[in-house]
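Journal club prep — side note

Before the paper discussion, L.F. wants everyone to see what a predicted structure for a comparable chain looks like in token form. Sequence:
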Amino acid sequence: MMPAILTTVETTALALLLAVPLGLFTAVYLNEYAKRGNKLVNVIRITTETLSGIPSIVYGLFGMLFFVTACGWGLSLLSGACTLAIMVLPVIMRTTEEAIRAVPRYIRWGAYGLGATKWQVVSKIVLPSAFGRIATGIVLAIGRAIGETAVVLYTMGQAINLPISPLDSGRPMTVHLYLLANDGINMNAAYGTALLLMVIILAFNLFARFLSRKRR
């Protein structure tokens, strides 16, 4: 089970490395820089809402067609991570937007009154003030990425060995559980994998609640 655990960690970390900066900068642009009524803003919001309602199997098929086939990456860690990044991006964007909106306006006005620039206000005041809620959204995104099966099944393959490079195939814990349960050869290992997955996802959700309560 150890290669499956390490593959899950690698895939989730790479997906967050791609999704968190993009989601963070997009949320900052929408709330702090974009003008109201901008057509680009409307397109971004509609796209985000659409992505948040798409089933995971559709993400898996898209990743297989685009990253695996069109980009030529094959069944690899990179294909799975990029597909997971697209899937968790709406969660990160939405929670970051809500966190930025929750920062009181008078804090910004006070900074502007002291001569701070727009970027200084955003980087030194708004983002640090919203860090607790942003971290909660990232933790929830981690939990969702770890628990997905269809996305990584169609984009990463089923190799049992630990992937050495981003273009190597791998088997995350969810795929490992699916194959064990589907074959029916070693159900004790399948039950153990399922229990470990439940404990990990529960731990991430409890940690997210802890961060939210601590921030309040």
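L.F.'s comment for the group: The two ends are 38 Å apart (CA to CA). Keep this in mind when we get to the figures.
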